[in-house]
Every structure is written in structure tokens, then in C-alpha cells.
Amino acid sequence: MASSIHFLDIKGKPLLTKDYKGDIPVTALERFPLLVLQGSSDEYNTKPVFQDRGVSYAYLIHNDLYILALARGNVNIYSIMVFLRRLIEVLESYVKRLVEESIRDNFSIIYELLDEMVDFGTPQISDVQMLKQYIKVKHFKLEELINPIKALDNDQKVKVPMALTNSISWRSEGIFYKKNEAFLDVVEAINMTVTTTGQVITSEILGKIKIRSQLSGMPDLRLGINEKFLNAGLDRLNGGTENLTNDFGLEDIKFHQCVRLAKFENDKIITFIPPDGEFELMNYRILSPPNLVPLILVDYKLQNHSNTRLELFVRLKTNFKRRLTCSNLELLIPCPDDIDSPSFQTSATTSKCKIKYVPEKSAILWRFKSIPGGKDYSMIAELNLPSVKLQENEDQLKKITKKPIKVNFQIPYFTTSGLQVRYLRINEPKLQYKSYPWVRYVTQSGDDYIIRLK
Amino acid sequence: MSKLEKRLRNLFSSPRKGETFELKSGLASNYAMERKESIRRVIAAMTVGKDVSSLFPDVLKNIATHDLEQKKLVYLYLMNYAKTNPELSILAVNTFVKDSEDPNPLIRALSIRTMGCIRVDKMVDYMATPLRKTLMDTNPYVRKTAAICVAKLFELHSDSCIEQGFLERLVELVDDSNPMVVANAISSLVEISRFSNDPSVLNLSPVVLKKLLMTLNECTEWGRITILTCLADFETTNSEDAFHIMERCSPQLQHENPAVVLAAVKVLIKNVDQIDGEAKLTLLAKLSSPLVSLLSTPPEIQYVGLKNIKVILEKYPTILSRELRAFFCKYSDPLYLKLEKIEILIRLVNDSNATLLLSELKEYALEFDQQFVDRAIQAIGQIAIKLPSISKKAVDILYDIVATRPEYVINEAIVVLQEFLRRYPVEFTSSIIPIIADLSIQDFNNSKAISSYIWIIGEYTSKIPHLESKLQRVAESFLEAEPSVQLVSLTTVCKCHLFKPTAQTQQVLQKVLEHATQKVDNSDVRDKAFIYWRLLSLEQEHIQKEVILTTLPKLDTIIPLFPTSVLNELVNEISMLSTVYEKPGRDFVNTDDANRYFNPNIQSRRIEELQLMAKREIMDNTVKAEHLLDFDDGIEEDGLSGPNSIGINELNELNDLFSGFNVSPSPIE
Predict the structure, then answer these.
(1) What is the architecture, at CATH level 2, of domain A4-134?
(2) Which residues of B155-171 are buried (b: 16+ CB within 10 A; e: fewer)?
């Protein structure tokens, strides 16, 4: 497995290093920036896995950091990279945002985690809730200063959670809440490529069910989802590809490790003992959902006045039921890099929306705090281009019509896939307490809800 | 000056300056908090790459503490300098051994884990006893750590690891009641068998197999990967066993960790060939959605996932044919990912989805990244050559693209058109030739494109307008061209002359042949020119035509596929680096790597010698550090004070450390 893990800044300068096997020469790390930059002038295009002088490099880019693993021989690279991703998640639960600064400030806890999570290159544990029980965020307490001996005593109590190596490694015994509640969030992110005429080119729904559990003891939960949805999922699992009676187009369901997978496959029942706190119970993916219409329609026209002045006409329509409300609707409309005194007009009242030019993204941002369904607004943006560079302007114009309009939105109390939660049964065999499940639905844009311009 | 006076002067002299000194005094402070803070600062300095090895004895003195965090930091320091100063770390043995018997399992595990990371040969003797104890610890957390430690010991000193019977112990641990211990024992055995190149270390008996299948559902995600990978290597001999294994592993395809999913996919792929007929198809169909789910990851991981999908697709080309859309490039994908997705797309294409893919590829060809545009155009050629049913459409699309933005695409387009003509020599000449007609050799900027252009001229002499002037240009640039272009130019010029023997072609031919035989230093080009020249002077036209106008074999596909033997090896190595590099492990793993990073000098010394070396090293470092610190210290000191006296103090303190050195190496059984 991995011989060492490194954190480097975007220039390739090492920030923190954890060596597991000692079989990588020091020069290997020194060569990393050279190798990454050599691949191409744009560092983002260098392949994330490559070999040099017998050492294999694999990295992820995260917030201007390289998280790099070095290895020798033919190792399971996929699991190494998945682990690096998990490592980032764990670290971010400790330090909020993993950046150069936070690595410097928290080096000792990061070392501790790296030591605990991996041994001799083999990943051991990556469960945040468990790790937090014996690797604690340290902060000075007044008590410690006044009474160091007592503080020492406290530290002595740090023990490995018994559950860590058990088969239910994600939950400790003896958790207690006064009020037992479980909050269930169904979140569906929509990725879609739509043309300005409303034709859908690709679409997918990435759904997930998140649970925040505040339950005592070792509760056994059973989640009921509408039969139709489940059947569609099972049908796919068993490879029933041609069977398009499946109304949902459900591709794939993935479960958190607490769900009894064999039970689901055999009996169609989702049962589990949840970890404490927040986690993602399941996620699913629906490709080209047959009933999904574009929720936001955008029409776009561009008028070019001899390469010195541009007029953009954008029309927006919220294509869903009137009783629903969409919040934080944002349209990022591409425009040339260098524009002058932009002016905007819109058919919506100015209190409802804001339009501004965002130079760092080379785009115009049109934004609604909230907008109900069935509405129709339009906007005209007039942009002046620097008159000295006519040829350049023309090239730029060609380019911006290839860039898509990016749309961000959120529609609460609404799902598009047809998934419904029927019930969440909570049963703790010993304590037998009363508990309250809550369910919430929201549909939002994914990373790729875009309008392709022609 | 009396001794007392000197001492007093030393006492009241201004404090020494410098970070090292500050840390040194901090580490020796009377207050626990201050000592701990100093250790933190030492580690901070180490993290940014400063050499703080001179503080070794001072840090080491803080190892005996009840503060877990402090202990961890000291251990970290030890591990770090174990690599560069292995002789120093021997000094800590005593504490390690004591810690391995601590009542707190966390500390027992910590000590055995850290001990294994100190790569000094002599450490082996001291490790044996604690390792044996911890392997039988009552706490599973300690056992699972000890299991890994056996692999560490093996890589350090395999002989003694075998002599002491640790391998047998490890095999026993496979039968442990705790899932995590089992997983780590397996992981350790796999590592050992990889290191020693001896597959027999991990003997997969039916009993072990049963144990693994049972443990699979109970361990952590990382343990599952280890076990699944191990199961994939189990060679089943009959369909019953294979079916059983697949049945037990297939629920893992729904795991949220994509690495578990891929490991489970591997188990299925390795076993599915044992089964025939309908059942096999059902099993293969099960793979499609888990494979597609590998795309719901960050781009870097997706990239590795796609490389694996490519291997699997070549083995079983039909399993993903319904999933074409999932592999469409996203606008925000980084380039390396887009290129990899196109690799998958062209392998997934069939008659029913080809039209969809063509229009998608056309979109890509109209983007602005040159490499991506080139690849998209190439892909259009690849799928059109694979599937005759869409060839007409593909040509039309190419025509459109070339018409809208010639400057961007012409180089790649001409190569594709050339390949097109080699697959469909007559069908599309009426649409392709007009594209060529207006172009001249100057419109291209790479030799592949130029060669393709020249080849087309030679092949379709009768249909090309203004043939003579085009040939003239070819002849003019002949000397500056690459050898590959020169070779195809020769053929084309000869062909044209055979078809259209005019004064002009005669002249061009003469010029090219002369250049090639007299001025070109590439022997292939020269030889080819001589052969043609001789042929042309034979006056036997049928022989000339037979040789020069010979038709090339028709292309079937231009999608490069792995040779079968390589493919089979790659399938065995799914999820490993070999799938990313697209060559079997044995091709890039250097077997000499087994003799890893070792310093033979240090290995062969006896322990006393190491102690001596350690002392000397610390003294040298201290002296050096003191000198550096003294440079702005105005007070001149004489005789005994100054660096030497400190050195002696240091030595006394060290003696304390050494005197505690009472653990004797366990006798080798």
C-alpha cells in the first residue's frame, strides 16, 4: 500500500509528511513539483497518477493543496486514492477547512490522526465518530492550568473505544439522549444539460438520504421506502437491464456500511444500527429520468454591434408548480473577460433580484433570493468592449458562446425522482423509548446544471 | 579564577540565544506544560524541515510520561529521526518495552506500532518479546496492531522473523474472533508474500476461505477491501465454489466506498468464467450499475476508475452498452478525465447508440481546448471505422466541422479522413475529395497530418484538381520534411507519375529522386528512392504498377486493444497501478526493489558500537549547535566552560539513559 502521505502547497512545497514504510528516497518528493509542472503548462491537466524512477505518485487536489501518496511496486491504487479522499473528510471534521494555514496550526493532531488511520500503509480506520472518541480536539482548559494533576487524570481516561474493532465498529455503547430524535433529509441534486429551446441533452439525479440520529443505546432502525422505487432499484441490482417498466430509471443504490447489505439484497428491507450524529445512509443515481422536465428554462440571445458593444437578452422561466418556491436561484451568464460599464434592465422588480458583473468569473450574475413557480422574467445586459482590440473581441465572442450558462437553485419540500419515505421505525430492544423521526425533502442543482448555448 | 567564581559567572552570564537553545532549556523545564509546549515546537520545526536531531537526548528524556499526547509527539520525533539517525533511536528501546506492558491498550499498541517503524536491524532482538506478547494480547486493538507489526519485522529482518515463528502466529491470527484482527493478519500476510515473492505464505485453504467469507460482512470498509482482494486471488476450480463466492460477495457491490465496490467487481470478474449460460449473463449484468457508480467520485479517483473500466470493457465488451450517456464529458471535467472518457465512449459504441455519440462528439469538436478537439475528431474516425452503418453521417459531420473552423481542426481531420479512405476506399470520395481540393501542404503543421495529405493525393491522383501545383509544393518542401513525410512523398510522386506522366510530373519526380538519393542522410529514404529509381528505369510498366500502386489492406478498426495475454494479466490486477499504466505489474516493478532502503553500515554494527556512535553524534551536534549559538555572545569564556563543559554534562545525562538499558535481547530459539 502507500509508503508515505504528504501535504503540499500548490507550488509543491511540502507542508507535512508522514512516512509509513521508509522505502522512498527523499529526492522523490523533491521531484514532485517538477514532474507535475512538466506534464503540461496547466498543472490541472497532469494526470493524477504517474510513475517516476520506480516511485508511483498519486494525488488529489483540494483547496489549493496537493494530498499526495507515494508508493512502490504494484499497489492497490484505487483504494489508496479513495482513502486520501476519506482522509480529507476526516481532517475537515477536525479543522473545518483544510488549507495551508490549518495544516500548520494543527500539525500535532494531523500527525496523530495519520498515525491512527494508517499503519504500515494499510488504512485502519476512517470513521470520524469513532476517531473523535479517542483523538480529541485539544484546547487549553482553565482547569488544566489550575490543577494539572487532575487534568492528567482526565487524559489517562482516553481509551480505545471497545466498539472500534467490533463488527459494529461505527457505534459505541452507552450513548444517551434525553429526547430521542432522528432527522431524515432526502436531498436530490439535479445535473442537466439543456439547450436554450428547452431540449434536454443529458440529465441525472443524484439523490441521498442523510440522517442525523440523536438516539440512545443501540437502536435498530428500519426505513420504509415506497415499494415501486425499491423494486426499480432491486431490478437494476439483479441486472434486469432491458426491463424498462422501471418508471424511475433508477441506476444504482449505495449504502452506508451500517446497512445490512445481504438483507437488502435478499429481503428488500433497509435495516441498520446507525452511527451517532450525522451520516449519509444511502445515495442513488438516476440517469435520464424519463419524467424529469427542466425546472428552470433559459433562453438566450446575443447581439453584437461591430465588436464594440454587446447586448445579451436572457429570459428565465421557472417551470414547476406555482405553490412551490425556489430559493437562491442564480444564473451565471458568461461574458468576455474585459468589459466596460455594463448596464442592466430587467422585467422583474429590483427588490426581487440582483444583477451584477463578476469580473473574476467573467460572467454576469443574475440572482433571485426566492422565486415561485410559473414565473417568467427577462433581462437585457448591455456591455461595452474595449474598442482597441477588435480582433481579440471577436475571438472572445466565439469563446463565450461555447461556455454554458450555469444555474444554481434550491427547491424545498419537493423531490423529482418519486422516492417517498413511508416510515422510519426505531426500536431499541433494551431501552424501549419513544422516539421521533422527522423527514424533509429538498431538490437542488448539482454541480452541472447548465444551459448549452448554440 | 576559582572554580566557584567560574560557576557564579556562568550562572549570571547573559542567557544564550537562538531557537535551539530555547527549546533545549524548555525541554528540561521543571513545568510539565512548558516541556510539552517545547516538544510541540520541536515537532513544528521538524515539520517545516528543520534539522532538530541535535535535541535528541533532550526530547528523549521526556518519553516517560503519562500524558498520551506528549508520548505520541516524542514517538513521532523518534520515528522521524530513526530514518536518518537510526543509531540514536536504539536509545529508546527501554521505554518501548516498558510501554508495551502498560495497562492502557492504547499505549501498548502505540509502542509496538512505533517500534516497528524504527528501522534498525538491532531493534529486531528487542522487538521479539513484546511482539510475541502483544500478538496474544487480550485486547483486539493491540492484536490488530501487532499483526501489522509482523510484516514490518519481516521487511526488516525476514530470517529472524521466520526463525522466531512469527509467520505461524500470524496464520493463527487469521482464525481470530475479531474481524479487524483477521483483516490485518491477512493484509500482513499479503504484504509478506509480496515482499518475499513467495505466494505460499498465504495458503488459501477452504477453511481460510470460509473464515474470510464470514468475516467479510463484519469488518470495516478497509478490511473488506483486503479480504475481497484476497478472495479474488483464490483460484476456484468448479462452478459451485465460484458461484458460492460470488453470491457472498455481490452484496458488497452496494457499499458506499467505491474501493470496496471495485474489489467486489474484481471477485465477480475473476470467478464468472467458471459459470456458463444464462447465469453468467445475469452475473455480468449485475456489474454495470456498480461500475457506473465509480463515476460519482472526485475527478482524480474517477480517472483511475475509468482506467479499470476500460480493462473490464475489453474483457467483456457488452456489459455497459446501455450506459453510454453516463460517460459523456462534463464541461467542468479536467482534460485528462475528458480524454479518458472518450476512450470508454468509443469502446461502448454500437449500432443503436452511435448516432447519439456522434452528435455528442461533434459538440466536443467545437470546444476550445486543442487536445480535446483533436481527440474528439479522432474518436469520430474511430467509431465510423468500427461501424459502417454511421460512416455516412460521420463524414458529413467532419465536413461540417472542417467548414466551420478549419484552422482549429484541419490537422487532425486530415488524418481521420485518410483513415476513412483506407476503410471505405470508394464510398465517400465525393464528399472527402472536395475537402482536400482547396488545401495545400502549408495548411498543416505536423508530420502526421502532412503525410496523410500527401498519401491521399497519391491515392486519388485522378480526382485531385491542380495536381501538378500540389506536387510542386511537396517537392519544394521535401528536404525540410521529416523522414516519415519524405517516405510517403516518394511514393506519391511516383504514383502520380505512373498515372499522369506529363512533363511536369516528370520534372518533379526527377527532382525528388535526386534530392532523396543525394542530399538526404536517412538511409531508409535513400534506399526507397534508389529502389523506385531502379524500378522506373526498368521500362516494365506492369511491374512498376504492381509494386508502387499496390493497395494497402483494409482497416478494420483503429481502436487500439490490449493483446490477449496482457489483458488477462490486467484483469488479474484490477484496481492496481498496472491498470493505470496499462501494463502488467511485472513490467514496471523492479524486483531489485526488494532490497530496499537499508544502510549496510549501520546494520552490521554491534549494539555497543551503536551506542558509542550515538553518543558521539549527539556530542558533535551539541558542540556544533553551541558554536552557532555563541556567535553573538560577547563574553569570551576560558578553559573548562563553553562547549566542552556542556558536552560533558550532556554525556553524564546520556549515561543516565544508557544505564537504564537493561533489557537484554531475547535468545533466538
Answers:
(1) 2-Layer Sandwich (3.30)
(2) bbbbebbeebebbebbe
